[in-house]
Amino acid sequence: MDSELDRGELSRRNLLDLLLSGSLLxxxxxVFYPVLRYITPPPVSxxxxxxxxxxxxSEIAPNTGKVFRFGSRPGILVQTASGEWRAFSAVCTxxxxxxxxxxxxxxxxxxxxxxxxxxxxxxxxxxxxxPLDQFNAxxxxxxxxxxxxx
Length: 150
Fold this sequence. Notes:
Strand order of the largest sheet: 1-10-9-4-3-2
């Protein structure tokens, strides 16, 4: 006489094992998938923007600056005390922190490791190994337009 197991039928124990295995697999996927998505950086497209409106002229007074978005990276626009417009990449060349303009020192400063850049983008103090990337800044009407240097 053949038992039910020999005929390939699913026993109660096999059904419970299958359901438990499926539940454990689902639980593991629910835990590890978000962790894996968190660890893996999202794809970032390269900057295809060559020109942006960084600010209105009326927004920035002399001896002040503003961080703006240039494609996928930040840029910094500075109006010097003499009224000249200067634009640079706002990413510090040391460890990629965002720099800011310090009106009291009249230069660009990286708060992460106390890096200092003059208003030509040159690194003058601190750990940054090279100057900031410089952009062209032109005024058209009430807008300051920043373009990549060629």
